[in-house]
Amino acid sequence: MDACTLGDLLDVVGGPALRLHTAPAGQAVPVTEAVLYDGHVPLPRLPGALLLAVGVRAAQAGPLLRAAGEAGLTGVVVRGADGPVAEAEAHGVALLSVAEDAAWHQVHLLLASAIAARPTGAAPDSGLGDLFALADAIATATGGATAIEDPRQRILAYSTVHGQPVDEDRRQGILGRQVPASAENTEQYRRLFAADRPIGLPALSAGDLPRLAMPVRAGGETLGSVWVIDGGSLAPDAEDTLAQGASTAALLLLRARAARELARHQGGELLRRLLDGTAADAATAAGRLGVAGPARVAAFVLDSAASVPDTERTALRLLDVVRLQCEARYGRHAGVLVDGVVYAVLPGPGERHRTLAEDIVARAGQALRVPVRAALGEVVPDAAELADSRADADLVLRVLDAELPVATVDEVRARVTLLRLSEVMGERRELSAGAWRRVLAYDAGNGTEYARTLVSWFDAGCDMAGAAKLLAVHPNTCRYRLRQLQQHAGVDLDDPDERLVLWLQLRALAGLSSATP
């Protein structure tokens, strides 16, 4: 595997997570590892390492930068926006920073995973191959067929050592990658997860075989379990072997988790750049996300009118729901949370996109106990135009309501067009001036309803009877109001251009319609 460079690292985790302030030796310098600073021991010579300045304030990091340069380190990572850039350049050490509220152990995990990842990108479940090898090793050493599970009883890996006895429960579990559910199983798992050493568990039914099982834990967290079938010929030291295997499984599961989190982080950053239109190569970024050909952006947001105790945490849970549903539908898929909005790219021509969005809204609303709304931008031919589809989705979000929680941009084209027109017209003096202001001023000063009458007449297609019906008045009343309006406001309702402009201004700028009270 090629060595990771500073540039490679920034490509993976650069941006909000990791900022570069200076790189005196350039970004092609190697980065071999990330190490935590310990002020109680001398700084070892670690060429190529990134030093995380734990316990050192950014402004006081000058001596540490000098020591890092003398030790041959590639760079120093400080916490906070400011740092001694001049000292870093003087000692030839790259200076990087993370956010003030970043936890050092999380930063270390992220950087270590990124440095260890192949430049081409590791598969999200890259640790599972090692788990299969571990299952084979445990099975060989103990003499029993072995399976490794996650906490939800999903089978992550299993042994394939020839000649070892198995039963129907194992066959069914491997076929479905899930342990068959039963009340007896539930009780066995309760006993297992309460234990801190390997325990023997009896067969659940006739024809089945007993098991030797061990929970897999790390730092008090249960990561899963390892099961060995006891066919009557387990090795004398099978329990010790299983305990050692569970310890190794914990390391592999943690590594697999780190790889998945890294892949998600990479995918989220790539998607963010695509949606912002800042990706250096949109086609390459889309390829890494698994998006090819036509696609559209879907935006999901919590209902702002709902009471949410912890909005930020709930939005992150919404991101998980969107990711899960999109991955189930499309395979590997990225989602990203930006300013409270969850964005996802839905590949394909779009016939089923609305159905998927409705399903996500229903599932998320039920899981989070908060109403969720979804907006779908226009389908675009390639990744280079995803920023436009994202802009569409953002507009659609602004016109959704409780009666219309999900919509595509085509379904609300008139609403979003008027919304954009109102913004553009409001910003330009020449577009916001005109007779509409005189009409509103006259109504305000004289208690008349000329503006509402005029909009109702427009909405009725300039039909007097239709306008009267909308206003619940006699047609003659409408005629009288319109004649008075022309006299007092100086408008020419016989001119189609003036009618069009007046209607647009009253609808877009004044927000009036025949339904306005």
Secondary-structure map:
Blueprint: H1 6-13, E1 19-22, E2 33-36, E3 49-52, H2 62-70, E4 75-79, H3 85-90, E5 94-98, H4 104-116, H5 128-142, E6 146-149, E7 155-158, H6 168-176, H7 183-194, E8 199-201, E9 211-218, E10 221-229, H8 238-276, H9 282-289, E11 295-302, H10 311-330, E12 335-338, E13 341-347, H11 353-368, E14 372-376, H12 386-399, E15 406-408, H13 413-427, H14 429-432, H15 435-446, H16 450-459, H17 464-471, H18 475-489, H19 496-509
Parallel strand pairs: 2-3, 3-4, 4-5, 14-15
Antiparallel strand pairs: 1-5, 6-7, 6-10, 8-9, 9-10, 11-13, 11-14, 12-13
Which key features would you list for this structure?
5-stranded mixed β-sheet, flat, 48% helix, 5-stranded antiparallel β-sheet, 15% strand, alpha/beta, 517 residues, 19 helices
Structural class: alpha/beta
Into which percentage range does the β-strand content fall? 5-15%
Q: For the CA atoms, what is the radius of gyration? A: 32 Å
How many helices in DSSP terms?
19
The total strand number stands at: 15
What best-fitting shape do the alpha-carbon axes yield? flat
Strand numbers in spatial order across the main sheet: 1-5-4-3-2
Low-confidence stretches: 118-127
Report the biggest beta sheet as strand number plus sense, adding barrel if it closes: 5 strands, mixed
Would you give an account of this structure?
- The chain is an alpha/beta fold.
- Helices cover 48% and strands 15% of the residues.
- The chain contains 19 helices and 15 strands.
- A five-stranded mixed sheet has the order 1-5-4-3-2, with helices on both faces. Strands 7-6-10-9-8 form a five-stranded antiparallel sheet, sandwiched between helices. It has a five-stranded mixed sheet with strand order 12-13-11-14-15, with helices on both faces.
- Helix 12 (386-399) links the parallel strand 14 (372-376) and strand 15 (406-408).
- Helix 8 packs antiparallel against helix 9 and helix 17 (464-471) packs across helix 18.
- The termini are far apart.
